[in-house]
Every structure is written in C-alpha cells, then in structure tokens.
Amino acid sequence: MRACVATGEKGRIECREVPTPSVEPGTLLLKTRCALICGSDLEYLDGVHGEIVPEEIRGHEFVAEVVEVGEGVRGWEVGDRAVPISYTSNYGCWADYFVCPPVGVQKVPEHVPDEEAVFVEPLHTGFGSVEAAELKPGRSVAVIGVGKLGLLTVMSATVAGAAPIIAIDLDQSRLDKALEVGAHDAFNANDGDLVSRVKDLTTGNPRFPATNGPHVVIACARGGNVLDQALGMVRQGGKVMLAGFMPPVEFDSGTVLTKQLTLSGMLAGRYGENRRNGRIALRMLAYKQLDPKPLLSGTMPFEDIQKAIDSTYSGEHLAVLLKP
After folding, report:
1. Other CB atoms within 10 A of residue 43 CB
2. CB burial class (10 A; 0-12, 13-18, 19+) of residue 205?
3. Residue ranges of domains in the chain, CATH in brackets
4. Are strands 141-144 and 165-169 parallel, antiparallel or unpaired?
5. Cβ pair 34, 114 in contact under 8 A
6. Whole-prediction pTM value?
7. β-pairing verdict for 28-36 and 2-6
C-alpha cells in the first residue's frame, strides 16, 4: 500500500510503498477516504516535538471506511465510515490503510459528506475551547490566529452566539475568510497597537476601565508574544484559552493574578470529559450548525504529500484535502 512517511530529515516526507497492516483482535482495519494536515504534523516534521522518526506514517485528521472488523469488536460493520473521537499522538492515517481500536473512532452519519466529516477532530478543539470558556450570547471573544483551527473556533463561537467575535492574524486572506465565516471584526496584528484596538472595541463599564476587553481570548496561533497579547487584552476576570501547542514562553504571571484571570488549555479530547466533544462536533455537522467546507483550499493525492506540506507551511493553502 501507499503511505506518507517521515524521512527523518527536517520538513521532509515521502509517499512510499509499505506493507499493508493486518487487523488484530479488538481493532478495526480502516481504509482512508480523505485526510487533513494538522499544525502539529507540521511541528513534528519541523522537529518541534522531539526526534523525527524515519519511516513513521503520519496523520490524525481523517474519514476512513471499515474494511475488516477484528475479533471481539462489536457495533461496527464493514462499510461504516469512521472519524477520530479524540486526539492521539498519531493515528497514521496518511496511508491507504491503518489499524485503530474502536474506542478511538466514531461512526459518521450517512448524510454527512466526507468533506465535512474530515473536520471533526480540529472542530473538536475549536468547539471545546468555546465551550470551556463558557461563551454565550453577547459575550465577546478574540481569536488570535485564524488558520484552520482558528476559523473553526470562530465558527463555533458564532454557533454559541458570542458577540463581538474578533479575528486576529497576520495574513489578510485569513482575516477575510474569518469575516466570511462569522467574525464581526478582523485585525491585522501588525497594524498599530493591537491590544488597545481590541479593548476599544470591547468596552465594558465606562466607570471601570478594567472591564474593557473581550470576555474571552482564544489563542490558536503559536507565536512567541501571543500569550502576552492575550493576557493584555482580556478584561478583568476574563478567560484565556490556549488551543493547540505553543512553544515555551515567558509571561507576566502578575497579570494573571492582578486581573484575576483564568488561563487554561484545550486539546481535542485526550483526557476525561473532553472526549465527548468529538461526538458533539460530529453532531454539529450532522445538524448543519456550521459548514467547514469553505475552509478547503485544495485537493491533492498522497503522491503530492510534500507539495501539500510545503504549501501549508507557506500559507498558500489553508486546508488541503489529502486523498489516496
């Protein structure tokens, strides 16, 4: 079978012929129908998370079809479509076939197309951040970094009724897309005093300047000063959510203390109660509460995996749909 494997060289990946895996008791043999590229995959290939393992098959955002059911597995049949229910370090879905335990996947309703269902895993994090921040109608939110994850966060905030929703990025095309999918305002982080502009747009009680700023800031970017910006703009008593990985940074803990902030992180359902967000994300798609298809910017076969990776690195593509 074909598989996209890391070469061990920074930023490099190849499509190669490798042995087809065999189903084992308690597992499902899945055939990939389509997949996406996650920011954490780029970071892995960049060596951010440690050693790049040669021959490792990558990918964890997918829609796959059950082709064989392992002994002892109940509730699954050949032909069922599956998507991930939680984040793991790696499913290895950038391949024609891969093996997965049933606890790691959930069934896709017949009427949900692959091009929507493939977004379940990142939507899990975007929606999870909105829910954990307790966003509700009339609560303001700033989303820093509106790549694929940030845009899904904007869309989730729209479903929650948040207002205003402020998108922040360095790329104008992404800011335009954020306005298209539900943001009320969009700021380029390079234009002027970002913190002041956001606080001016989200004024609270005129008698108490500390109430200026959004109720919630969700950081979906991985830049070094993003956390300081988030802490600076959020209002007193507000919440700052970190969605996805961020490199180690220094920040002013005194700001967290004096503004009485809640600082938290969200990773797609790896632990405890958060796992249910995968089911909720799929339900949101099934009931058409949001449509992620406008985020797709291209389709490429596995053979073009390096091109897909490079074009995602460069920002040329927002979300490349990989197909076997």
Report:
1. 15
2. exposed
3. 2-119+292-323 (3.90.180.10), 122-266 (3.40.50.720)
4. parallel
5. yes
6. 0.94
7. unpaired
